[in-house]
Specification:
Blueprint: H1 3-15, H2 20-35, H3 40-51, H4 58-71, H5 74-86, H6 92-108, H7 111-128, H8 133-144, H9 154-163, H10 167-192, H11 203-228, H12 234-253, H13 258-291, H14 294-305, H15 309-326, H16 329-346, H17 351-365, H18 373-381, H19 386-409, H20 412-415
Helix pairs in contact: 1-2, 2-13, 3-13, 4-7, 4-12, 4-13, 5-6, 5-11, 6-7, 6-8, 6-10, 6-11, 7-8, 7-18, 8-19, 9-16, 9-17, 10-17, 10-19, 11-12, 13-16, 14-16, 15-16, 15-17, 16-17, 17-19
Length: about 425
């Protein structure tokens, strides 16, 4: 059985709507019996070795800190500062929505958590101040996607683990594209709402917002400053962020109840529990394939059929846009990143550059039916029909496609800080 046959078998199982973990486990067993010794005990050992990594702790920790912020008052206080600063400008609330998503993304690392945390505060404010529900939902869905581009990002951590790439370097590479997307989203939001009613600027409101939200403002400074200065690894930074958030919420703001803490831990466990079995099986497959030099054979196959590096990266973009539309971000990275990163290096693209391009494509997939997670969550959170939500994100997808093309054709946008 060849690698291509195994891949087709796994894809067929996925198409038949078999649970992704079971589909990958079937693929792992086929790989073990085809390329390995055919011993199930070796399969179990590979899973254990794949999961025995300290960096994996960063994923549940970042998920937990995002949940704490969303349920507590750190997020709302951070948003209040931004609204006080921009609400009086043309399209000020729309601008505040995007900037709040960007600020929250610098802590949470998650698209859905970002969208829900910001949306719980700003969706009512937008609709009450004359913004259409369609624009408000589109802005929150699109702004939420910044959660996986602006570091720290859980998908970037996943990509780094699957491809053995420096997570800190990936975080640095995400800053440029994150700023580009934030600026592009903000410009569109302001232009589309130039004549909307504005809030009245108040120095006293700004001063009060900063005074009451200074601890919330310091959180991304501590988190990102610690990572980029070299004082924290991503895992340590996530642990520090949790400790800081718990201290601030429990001792200073004191708005969370015991039930909120229990719910936060429970929800985080559910999110992580759906990802880790998938991650374990996929990493065990990659380990065996690497030992048997299967990626090298795939590289040779690609080089024999596609000569131009530009043609290759455009094909990859098209493939990832398709994958993102039918698969969640974590699953897409786990399945495609190891193979594509090897092939990309043969065409002169570094793993870091490919990682950012992959994240941007999958970011668009979060807004693309039929499996766009932000669309599905928004339908429940904002009580709107799926068709209306899909229409609301179309202009934002166009903006994202332009930014994706820029990052693909102008690599220094991502690589300048690496």
């Amino acid at each position: 059985m060849t690698a291509l046959a195994i891949l087709l078998a796994v894809l067929a199982l996925i198409a038949l709507r078999v649970n992704l973990v079971w589909a990958l486990m079937a693929g792992a067993l086929m790989v073990q019996f085809t390329y390995g010794a055919g011993e199930l005990s070796y399969f179990a050992q590979d899973i254990w070795a794949a999961m025995d990594r300290q960096v994996l702790l960063a994923i549940p920790l970042f998920v937990l800190v995002g949940q704490i912020m969303a349920r507590g008052s750190i997020a709302s206080r951070l948003i209040r500062v931004i609204v006080a600063m921009t609400g009086h400008l043309p399209g000020g609330l729309a601008m505040a929505t995007i900037l709040s998503c960007a600020a929250f993304s610098a802590i949470s690392g998650s698209s859905i958590i970002t969208m829900l945390a910001v949306g719980s505060v700003l969706y009512p404010a937008l609709t009450e101040n004359g913004y259409s529900r369609r624009f408000a939902i589109g802005a929150l869905c699109a702004g939420g996607t910044l959660g996986i581009v602006i570091p720290p990002s859980v998908p970037m951590i996943l990509y780094g683990i699957m491809t053995e790439t420096s997570i800190v370097s990936l975080f640095r590479a995400g800053i440029g594209p994150g700023i580009l997307l934030t600026i592009a989203f903000t410009l569109y939001a302001v232009i589309a709402n130039w004549n909307r009613p504005r809030l009245t600027f108040s120095w006293s409101e700004l001063g009060t917002a900063i005074k009451e939200g200074v601890l919330a403002i310091l959180m991304p400074v501590i988190l990102l400053g610690g990572i980029y200065s070299g004082h924290f690894s991503p895992t340590e930074a996530a642990a520090v962020a949790i400790g800081y958030a718990l201290l601030v919420e429990a001792l200073v703001y004191r708005e969370m109840k015991i039930a909120d803490y229990i719910g936060t831990i429970s929800q985080s466990g559910i999110l992580v529990g759906t990802l880790f079995p998938l991650l374990a099986v996929a990493m065990s497959i990659n380990k065996l394939l690497a030992e048997k030099q299967v990626p090298g054979h795939l590289v040779d196959m690609a080089l024999n059929n596609v000569e131009s590096p530009l043609a290759f990266i455009l094909i990859v973009n098209g493939l990832l846009l398709l994958v993102g539309a039918v698969m969640d971000t974590g699953s897409a990275i786990v399945i495609t990143a190891p193979v594509l990163s090897h092939i990309a290096e043969a065409y002169g693209y570094s793993k870091i550059q490919l990682g950012i391009i992959m994240i941007l494509n999958l970011e668009i997939g979060i807004l693309t039916p039929p499996m766009g997670m932000n669309l599905i969550v928004a339908m429940t959170a904002f009580h709107e029909k799926f068709g209306m939500i899909v229409r609301s994100v179309i202009p934002w997808i166009v903006v994202m496609l332009v930014c994706l093309l820029l990052v693909t054709l102008v690599p220094w946008i991502a690589l300048a800080l690496v």
